[in-house]
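Comment thread on ticket #2218

A.B. wrote:
> Attaching the input chain for the structure job we discussed in standup.
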Amino acid sequence: MLNRLARERLESAFPLCWVAGEVSNLTAAASGHVYFSLKDSAAQVRCVMFRNRAQLLGWRLENGQHIEVRVLVTLYEARGDFQLNIEAARKAGLGNLYEQFVRLKQKLESEGLFAVECKRRLPAFPRRIGIVTSLQAAALRDVLSTLARRASHIGLVLYPTPVQGEGAAAQIAAAIRRAGERGECDVLILCRGGGCLEDLWAFNDEALARTIRSCPIPVICGVGHETDFTLADFAADRRAPTPTAAAELAAPERTALLSQLAEYRNALRRQIRQDQNQRSQHLDWLAHRLQDPAQRLAQQRDNLLNIQRRLDNSLLQTSTRCRTRLTGLNHRLFLARPDTSRLARRLEALMPRLHGQWRTSLHAKSTDLARLAASLTLLNPDAILARGYSIVTDKAGSILRDSRNLEPNDHIVVSFRSGRVEATVTSVAVEALQPNAQNRPTR
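C.D. wrote:
> Ran it. Output below, let me know if you need it in another format.
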C-alpha cells in the first residue's frame, strides 16, 4: 500500500519530462524490454524501456551513449525501486535539430506551402521519369530495378546530386530546378536511403522545400524509411515511405496495364458480338415486316373501303336517331304549349280587384302621410320661436340651458324667429323655475 501511494504521488507530481545522461549497465531481456542506468557526473537512475517503445526506436542502444529520453517518473512497487519509464529516446544533440525542424515546419505550414489543395495529381501514364539522387546511393539501384521490373518501356532521366553533407540541399534544389526548366519528364522522383536525423538534414532545408513546391513537374519524395519524415516529404506532391515505393507510385506496372488492356479488348469483343446479334435480329424482324408494294396498296384499299362503309352506316344511324329525337321534342313542345285564352279571361277577372286594392292602399298611405306631417309641424323649431321663445348660445355656438353656466361679462347670442341679437351678461341670478317654465330660453 505504501509503495503504491508513493508511486501515485511521484507520477502525479512529475509530468513527462526530458532527461539527458550516459547509458550504462544496458540489458536487453528476452521479453524485448530494455533495462539500463542513466547517469551523469553527480548521480544515476534506473530506467526501463518496454518492448512496444523499444521496437519504435529505430537505432540500437549501447553502453556509453549520451542520449536524451522522455520519461515518466515512477516507483517499481514490487521492489520499491525508484525508476524512469522511457517513452521516447533520441541521441544527445538531436534535440536542437528536431526543434529547428518543428519550427520551420510550422512556419512553412502557416504559409500554406503544405496545403493539400495545392498538391498536383501524378500522371497516370508517364512517358519519361526523372530521378534526383546520388549516383552512389543504394536508393538509386532500388528505384532503377523497380522501374525495370514494372515499366521497362518508360524512359528515365537521371539528375545526379549529392544527398548528404555540406551544401547538399542547395545542389538538390539546383537539380530540381534544372529538371523543371528542361521539361523533359512527366514526373520527378526525389529519393535517398534511410539514416539518422543528421544524415537526412539536407532534406529539411527551407529553400529546397520552396523549390519542390515551385517545380512545374509533379514531385514524388521517397527519402529514408517509413518512419522518417522531412520537409521535402511535406512539400512534395506525393510522399512515399521508401524509394522503392516512390518508383511504384511513379510508374504503373506494365503487366497490370497489359492485363487490363486484355480485359478491355475482351469486353469490347463481347460488346461488338452482342451488338451484331441484336442488329441481326432486328434486321430479320424488319425483313419479315417488309411486303410487296402492290399487296400493301391492296390492303390499304380494302381498309379504306371498309372505313367508308362504316362511315356511311354511322351517318345513316346518326341521322335516323336525330330525326326520331326531333319528332319527339316537337310532340313534347306541342303538349307543353300554354292555353292563352284561359289565361286572358283570368287576367280580365283580376283587373277590377287590382284597381280596388290600389285605391285602398293609396288612401291608407295618404292618411299616414298627413299624420306624420302634422307631427313634424309640431316639432318644427320655427313654430316654437313663433310662440315667443328664443334660443341662447355662447360664442362657440353651443346652446345654453342653465344660467349657472354663465358668468358676468360673458358674450351671448339670442336667436328669435326673425333675426338675432348679441348681448353681454351683466349679472347672473339662479332661481328655481316653475314646472311650466322649464327649458324656457333666457330673454
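A.B. wrote:
> Thanks. Noting for the ticket: Residues 384-437 form one domain.
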